[in-house]
Design brief:
The structure is a single chain. With 200 residues, the chain is mainly alpha-helical. It has two domains: 149 residues, no CATH class; 43 residues. Helix content is 64%, strand content 6%. It has a three-stranded mixed sheet. Helix 5 packs antiparallel against helix 6, helix 7 packs across helix 8 and helix 7 runs parallel beside helix 9. The longest helix has 22 residues.
Length: 200
């Protein structure tokens, strides 16, 4: 498999927002089939690293769905989306600056701590299993616009997750992958037992 040809094909599969925000990079030395670092605030480049030697062991539909899932997850990370935690971070930063100007060390520590707690909460929300499940759902929706049915897309993503574990030489799937697989089985019509509603 020629990496440049596959990258061009994958760019055609990606949604326009994915092409603008992410970049596919060949990384033959990595042990994972596909990987992406958690994007930091205000980072323009959101690279997706692919080991094409391992990538070629997957079928074309599996590769499409894995890429769409990773792109959906990266696009779904929102650091600057207005909500309570972003407001708390901003208030903490402004409060910290005001306290620093006044020379109040205790105020600076409290404001900085408040900002840190809110930033950690944003971080955890974006790295949660719920964000992975949402990315799976968005990837399936995008795949439907690329000619896959919902059932086919869910089955391809399910088999891709399982195949990646085998290709990477892992003894089994991690907890997050097991939850995702169970959710995909329900979407694909392979199981009636979904994940609990209160889990999300």
């Amino acid at each position: 498999m020629e990496p440049n040809i596959e990258i061009r094909r994958l760019l055609d599969v990606m949604p326009a927002s994915g092409r603008m925000m992410t970049k596919i990079v060949s990384k033959p030395e990595q042990k994972q089939v596909i990987d992406a670092a958690f994007p930091l605030p205000l980072s323009q480049a959101r690279p997706i690293y692919i080991n094409f030697d391992l990538w070629r062991r997957l079928t074309k539909p599996q590769r499409d769905l894995l890429l769409l899932q990773k792109v959906s997850w990266l696009i779904g990370v929102k650091w600057l989306q207005p909500n309570i935690y972003q407001g708390v971070v901003l208030a903490g930063l402004v409060g910290g600056i005001l306290e620093a100007v006044q020379g109040d060390v205790v105020g600076v520590v409290i404001a900085g701590g408040l900002s840190a707690v809110a930033a950690i909460r944003i971080w955890r929300t974006n790295k949660s299993q719920e964000s992975e499940l949402t990315a799976d759902t968005v990837a399936i929706r995008i795949a439907q616009r690329r000619g896959y049915s919902e059932t086919e897309a869910a089955q391809h993503l399910l088999t891709a997750i399982e195949a990646v574990g085998t290709i990477e030489g892992r003894s089994g799937l991690n907890f997050s992958e097991l939850i995702r697989c169970q959710n995909l089985k329900v979407i694909a019509g392979l199981s009636q037992v979904g994940i609990p509603k209160n889990y999300q």
